[in-house]
Amino acid sequence: MTTPWGEFELSRFPEDPRDRLRAWDASDAYLLRHLAEEGVPITGTVVVVGDRWGALVTALARHRPTQITDSFLSQEATRANLARAGVEPGAVGLLTTQDPPPERVDVLLVRVPKSLALLEDQLLRLAPAVHAGTVVVGTGMVKEIHTSTLQLFERILGPTRTSLARQKARLIFCTPDPALERPANRWPYSYALPEGVGAVSGRTVVNHAGVFCADRLDIGTRFFLEHLPAGTRGARVVDLGCGNGVVGTAVAVADPQAEVLFVDESFQAVASAEATYKANGVPGHAEFRVGDGLAGVAPGSVDLVLNNPPFHSHQATTDATAWRMFAGAKRALRPGGELWVIGNRHLGYHVTLKRLFGNSRLVASDPKFVVLKAVKRG
Ligand SMILES: C[S@@+](CC[C@H](N)C(=O)[O-])C[C@H]1O[C@@H](n2cnc3c(N)ncnc32)[C@H](O)[C@@H]1O
Fold first, then answer.
1. Chain centroid to CA 64
2. Which residue of 321, 347, 371 sits with most ligand 1 atoms within 8 Å of its CB, as the best mutation to test the pocket?
């Protein structure tokens, strides 16, 4: 990436040589060019929210920025990109969306996240640190910036306008108004599950902003809850890509002897899973871990993996993540251990499971979803 601060070699995480997707886009480039061309003073405490793969903080490293991210994968990519650029450790602060934000912010750069709820939560958390002199600039691709996005800046920070589009990217300029009466932060948000969803019927789910299906039960997850394996009897279980933790909590409620590991790459998700588990007063053993799939879980150490894989509109991303999750499950399972997967019928996960495990059985189906099970053979 060529920027007014120099040229940087950037990659995503995990690195995949077949992956031709760049680790920055036109919205990163537009923001950096704007800061340089307009001579925007980048002094004091510089905070960068939503930097996808660390392109912004790597380019701006000499201004000692602090990055705030919800994503473990983004944070790992940022660490690697900073190291490759020769940035001294500690020059860039790496915070998660769950950490307390800095007390004063002089420059706030926002790469608009995919989740409007996460943007709302982050702006509300940062607003007390923003003052009348804070420079606030947002950036995103045109298709990611809606009227509702601009309204959030306007309602939480102050008067907001946008730039012209350049290479399908747009900037957001906001003039903070400290006298503004901000709305209350509605996150984290809890709701009660409906009846008829197995062990967790009528129980509470806690959702931090930005987690998958944060304000109602997803219909796929619902179908999974209705068909989870019975009789786990003290098994070591992983809720892989746990989101708000409803699946792993269902296992723990049904079998208090089970040892459940909740894993997600989203800091918001893992915090939600822990809150959901605690809200249900389950007496068993549980561990909550932010990480990339099952990396770091000892091979052959798990009896059961439950997975509702992520799917994005970008097909390449979809397949790659599901494949990595299934392959990780195969490694982590003991011989005879099982991976249970819920997916949209059209995603064809049975083909992937057959290729990886040599078997795939249909546990349940409806016109939209399938629950599949693959067994690790000796
Ligand atoms: C479709 S959601 C399922 C959430 C929850 N299990 C449910 O059924 O409601 C997929 C989850 O996978 C997580 N995820 C995506 N990539 C991941 C990765 N590389 N490692 C761990 N979790 C990941 C997402 O953050 C998201 O919470």
1. 25
2. 321
